[in-house]
Amino acid sequence: MVATVRTVLGDVPAGDLGVCDAHDHLFLRSPLLPGQELADREEAAQRLRSFRGFGGGTVVQWTPHGMGRGAGSLAGLSRSTGVHVVAATGLHQAAHYPPARLDLIRDGLASLFVAELTEGIGSTGVRAGLIKVAGAFHTVDAHARLTMTAAAEAHHRTGAPIAVHLELGTAAPDVLDLLCGELEVAPQRVILGHLGRSPDGTMQREAARAGAFLAFDGPSRAHHGTDWRLPEELAALAEAGFGGQLLLGGDATVPDTPGMPFLLRRLCPRLEEVLGAETMTAALVGNPARAFALGPVRDAWP
Fold first, then answer.
1. Into which CATH architecture does domain 18-291 fall?
2. Which residues carry this modification: N6-carboxylysine (predicted)?
3. Mean pLDDT by 10 residues, the chain (302 residues)
4. Separation of CA 117 from chain center
5. Annotated domain spans of the chain
6. Burial class (CB in 10 A: 0-12, 13-18, 19+), 35
7. What is the full DSSP assignment across 52-93?
């Protein structure tokens, strides 16, 4: 059976993704980023065209439910630019939502995630292809436990992978203990984001040994002073035998971040000097094809 990835234009063979930006945003809004919304469709199209011009094939948008993910525009953008786009369901940290909104959906999160994965996001007909959730700083707080529990249920019912925002790169062991231990999600179905924001090599190797995919998505914001360590971090993981778990992304969250074109134009050539072509091809092509593929569905939950 051929593995498939659920894009906004339908399911495609995982091997057709090509070069993949494994974590980025075409559209995003949050009360924590007032006046810095990603909401311009033509700017999104231009970024996709530029990404395509540098050899890009797929962009995975991690913008979850309720954060202006532009679901109604994603199919048209994918079709017009020739770039595969994967959309997300899921929920971010509580601070990104009005409390009244969380109260309305809190008890039905798993059903919401499943519906957006299988039926579509609202009336757009666009189906999500992954579930995005978020940890807290050095811990899994009550909100994270709630959303991760719902994500695990949706995963078991649909086979969709789970992508995790690690706050400043922390709490990976706690996230994996919950998702892969208590909630029985296979670690190969978990993608840990922002690992480079906490340059803790011991923690990174621990997450790698657990079997999760490791997303390094910088440079993404100007104040991320750890981005300069990215080549040595990736080299250490590759030399330790974890090159098959590495993913790369641009993670543009506000208009002035360099994002997906910069990933291929500047960052990847720099990384290839250190890692070599084989490891870079794995990180950009082979690893994403496995990380974002739909997996088997469990018949019952729990």
1. Alpha-Beta Barrel (3.20)
2. 132
3. 95 98 97 94 97 98 97 98 98 95 91 98 97 97 97 98 96 98 98 91 96 87 72 96 97 87 92 96 98 85 52
4. 15
5. 18-291
6. exposed
7. HHTTEEEEEE---TTS---HHHHHHHHHHHT-EEE-EEE---
